[in-house]
Amino acid sequence: MSAAQSDALVFFGATGDLAHKKIFPSLQAMLKRGHLTVPVIGVAKAGWTLDQFRARAKDGLEKHGGLDSAAFEKLCGLLRYVDGDYKDPATFQAIRQELGSAQRPAHYLAIPPVLFELVVEQLGKADCIKGARVIVEKPFGSNLASAQELNRVLLGAFEETSIFRIDHYLGKRTRSSSPSGTATTSRAYRSPWRRISGSRAAAPSTTRPAPSATWSKTICSRS
After folding, report:
1. 214, CA 20 to 30 Å: which among 77, 136, 190, 221?
2. How many CB atoms lie within 10 A of CB 160?
3. Are 35 and 87 in contact (CB under 8 A)?
């Protein structure tokens, strides 16, 4: 069954180091390849304005990705910013407002795992989950029990086919669990931008794709 492409990207943790070093360069790369044409809504609690957010993006590109002036100007036209506490429902109402007519957003959680449940719950209350995908950007639990708990949280709001898990435990024993509780382990290098689906362990990899690979799949994919 085909699925329509995502029509917005919302990323939490928008003022952090990951955004500065990796996310902004990847967004520019996607735009230059014609893979990014939808609104990009950054969310964080920093007391920033949209202009400060754009300035942070420019600084990240200058220091970590190589600034392309023409591409950056187009990226600025797509950038939105919501400043607020993840515990405050008003933050998520502001996200809903920024989404406008978007009905299939991709939510990228570049935040500590302890905040996953809170953010997913708040997204649901603000009507930001229907038709959406979610990308989890942190270690997916520290053991089987914690991985199962994260699965419970995510699967309580999203279909399995709409969940993309990114695990940072590279070169170590890693574990992914299915909703039924079965688990597989792998000692292979796990690309942090590879999708892990259900109980299937990530395949061995010797290269590290750019962050844009995951977003291209979730934003542009039709299957």
Report:
1. 77
2. 12
3. no
How many other CB atoms are there within 10 angstroms of residue 16's CB atom?
17
Q: For the chain, which ranges sit under pLDDT 50?
A: 1-2, 170-209, 223
Q: Do 102 and 132 contact (CB within 8 A), yes or no?
A: no
CA-nearest of 221, 220, 162, 215 to 24 is: 215
Is the domain covering 8-220 a CATH 3.40.50.720 domain? yes
Phi, psi of 63 (to 5 degrees): -95, -25
At 100, list the tokens: 């406008």
Strands 174-177 and 105-109: unpaired
User: Which helix (H) or strand (E) covers residue 164, if one does?
Assistant: strand 163-166
Structure confidence at residue 2 (pLDDT): 46
Interval 36-63: pLDDT, tens: 999 999 999 999 999 999 999 999 999 9
